[in-house]
Recover the amino acids of this structure.
């Protein structure tokens, strides 16, 4: 490629870097390793571009990063290493593996750029990483790519070397482990129920500070409409929909701590909570009637 081609390819790659780093960080739980995985994707893109144009660059890069992360997780498991903790490092670490990044484009994101701020803020915190560390590498990849990044199971199956049905099963199994009370070591059902009750009470009252007390700073709220991250954003959303909290009752949802919003005695929406370190780390909101019909809803015991 000519120098101009190199620059153009680097610019295209940089446009995808924030998303790739988010995928890799969720997969690996380490900013440093995530940067290594993204850097490896750049090397492979540079080599692939020499033999022809890469169509659907975003999908191609996500697939490459997924495969790199899967290999790193499997290597970590084979060495019986403890999962790395999330760390705070520079936004970009070009050349950490000993090679340069895209020429003249790698570097810190502009802090005055709201779009970049939003992308960088969409990074899973320590709480959810604790839950993800309980999954196998294949489960983690299927869950992260499908549930958090909406990658089709057909593409996930190609990364794992399995068929789409198997990939779907892996994601489903991972989802149950993430949501279920046994997904987090040492989970206390009574404490989980107390947190649900506190969340609902604060939401009903529009108590923003009360919500912040029960939400993990890096809480992730997911619904059919998308993903919201961060305690302030999730608390704001909860106060906005206080009318739903008023009709909500605490319940077990598929065995996990949660709540059900009733309308004319029928479930209108369900909330499923994942509690990590005595804070709500993940909040799943289900409103689709078909999905609601499949849920096992149980009021559970009264709080003690």
């Amino acid at each position: 490629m000519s120098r101009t081609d190199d620059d153009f390819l680097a610019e295209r790659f940089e446009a995808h870097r924030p998303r790739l780093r988010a995928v890799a960080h969720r997969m690996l739980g380490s900013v440093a390793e995530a940067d290594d995985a993204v850097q490896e994707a750049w090397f492979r893109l540079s080599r692939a571009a020499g033999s022809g144009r890469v169509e659907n660059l975003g999908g191609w890069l996500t697939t490459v990063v997924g495969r790199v992360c899967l290999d790193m997780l499997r290597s970590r498991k084979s060495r019986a290493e403890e999962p790395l903790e999330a760390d705070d490092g520079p936004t970009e670490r070009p050349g950490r593996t000993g090679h340069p990044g895209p020429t003249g484009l790698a570097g810190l994101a502009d802090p005055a750029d709201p779009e970049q701020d939003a992308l960088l803020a969409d990074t899973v915190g320590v709480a959810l990483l604790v839950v993800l560390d309980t999954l196998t590498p294949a489960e983690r990849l299927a869950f992260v790519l499908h549930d958090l990044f909406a990658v089709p199971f057909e593409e996930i199956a190609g990364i794992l070397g399995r068929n789409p049905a198997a990939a779907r099963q892996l994601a489903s199994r991972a989802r149950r482990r993430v949501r279920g009370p046994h997904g987090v070591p040492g989970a206390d059902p009574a404490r989980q129920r107390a947190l649900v009750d506190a969340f609902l009470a604060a939401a009903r009252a529009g108590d923003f500070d009360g919500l912040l007390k029960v939400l993990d700073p890096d809480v992730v709220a997911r619904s059919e409409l998308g993903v919201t991250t961060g305690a302030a954003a999730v608390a704001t959303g909860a106060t906005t929909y206080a009318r739903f909290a008023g009709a909500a009752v605490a319940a077990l949802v598929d065995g996990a701590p949660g709540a059900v919003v009733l309308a004319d005695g029928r479930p209108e929406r369900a909330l499923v909570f994942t509690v990590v370190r005595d804070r709500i780390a993940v909040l799943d909101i289900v409103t689709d009637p078909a999905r609601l019909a499949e849920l096992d809803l149980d009021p559970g015991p009264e709080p003690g």
About this structure: Confidence is low (pLDDT under 50) at residues 80-124. The CA atoms of residues 31 and 87 lie 6 Å apart. The chain is about 55% helix and 15% strand.
